[in-house]
């Protein structure tokens, strides 16, 4: 789940690479490295963040008009300088960066070691540099041999190397003396950016918006050669040129910047009064068509991970409640256990803000092997999941940079509500309800609410355990709230269905144990009696509700918005999670061990 970035053009590459990696850091932030070619190859890398290493390694001093940069999220090999990218060959003439997993790297490495190659890392990625070196030595070629489009030795050696790889990969490669970058992608995301002074490569669209909105979305097994003089061309792995359209991104640069906010998390939380409206801007004919597919589908599955999974769970409650329809919600990483009864009449919803989550992609490919129909709900046009779809609904949330999903979660919930209403032929009614939420949502990030949540964060920051309970739509909200708090504050936070407490979790409650209770008009009595069970064991009850209750030790007032409660009740919990991270001096945008899109299985 690393971030890769590349540039070749007329500008000095290293400052561009540093800024690109800064913009990409949400994809992984264990270690950073850059390689540039200025006649000879220069590589600088180490453990740490680009912000520090830029200075410590004087990265912007690196010369040359082309280079590649990498920010790592470790999969193979511990976080060490040697395991950070770029990786090179035995003679430090070739440098590669990689995002993904090379499943057959051990087999390849064994062969290469037998042939005398020396490895300097524990990573799977390093084999790529040595395979290219093998290809070149076969050709017995020296750098700088005149290249032609039907392939100089460097491209041929790269193709030879890429064809031996199995797994998921986006790779950029450079070679001393060659004024070009050779790239390939399979299952891992990679886009090309084009502007008047050069060509960009990045794992995502948002990081290149600083320079261009003109992007090329690559298909699997596309090979790209970006030459300083000749520009950029796309080929298949048999070196036949292929045409890929240039698209214009409709996000603007400011959306991918913090603006007046200290962190992306708070900026994105504060955008929700707008973003939930934008989630309703859909082609209603498409929404109705998809509603028709749900009705006629023989088995409907929602497949997702993390917060997107919680949004789907909320959706299943809304489908049942609003449209009297049952849908299945399955964790993407568990979906293979359900594949047995997928048919061409099955409808599979792939829900993913990034559109690149490997578990969801794997699930979708399994379903497609059984001719099931795919509806994708994503925030990223051009993403892998958007291209696997038979029907596509875009979330319109704008770029989400903070690793935690906040605005995209509430947008997904709104889209679930919209689909549930469309099944009842009342999508307009739903859009109106969302419109009516504007001020309530806006006020939830107002100073008064933030101050109250800051106080609560101060009191909870020292806790080891926090629990959350709810029933119905409040249960799925409790699950999402618990995920937000644990992801960013590192406090063990768990959610339970209120009715489950007595079946075990109540044993966890002792004097002062904080328990959040999500209440709505519908299930007030039952969930309040659960709160009393907690209180009776000394628990500290924090009510999230439209009205106070004597059982509450603390009350967070949130208007009751019926079926849209999962939107309105999630937001103060996002703010609380943020305030807890700030209180504990943790980085809310880049929590430890996590990354924005999980592109490995
Ligand atoms: C949520 O805050 C996390 N970032 C994570 O659980 C996320 O929801 C999950 O990885 C799914 O991501 P996706 O929506 O991009 O597929």
Summarize, please.
With 601 residues, the chain is α/β, with parallel strands linked by helices. The chain binds 2-deoxy-2-amino glucitol-6-phosphate (AGP).
- Class computed from helices, strands and strand pairing: alpha/beta
The distinct ligands, each listed once, are: 2-deoxy-2-amino glucitol-6-phosphate
Which bin fits the share of residues in helices?
25-40%
Mass-distribution shape: globular
Q: Helix count?
A: 19
Please, what is the average pLDDT?
Answer: 94
- Sheet-strand content, in percent, reads 15-25%
Tell me the Rg in angstroms: 25 Å
Strand ordering within the main sheet: 3-2-4-1-10-9-11-14
Tally of DSSP β-strands = 24
Distance between the termini: 10 Å
Main sheet summary: 8 strands, antiparallel
- Runs with pLDDT <50, length 5+? 140-151
How would you explain this protein's 3D organization?
The structure is a single chain. The protein is an alpha/beta fold and 601 residues long. It has 19 helices and 24 strands. The strands form four sheets. It has an eight-stranded antiparallel β-sheet with strand order 3-2-4-1-10-9-11-14, with helices on one face. Strands 5-6-7-8-12-13 form a six-stranded antiparallel β-sheet. A hairpin with a 1-residue loop joins strand 2 and strand 3. The N and C termini lie close together (10 Å). The model is unreliable at 140-151 (pLDDT under 50). The structure holds 2-deoxy-2-amino glucitol-6-phosphate (AGP).
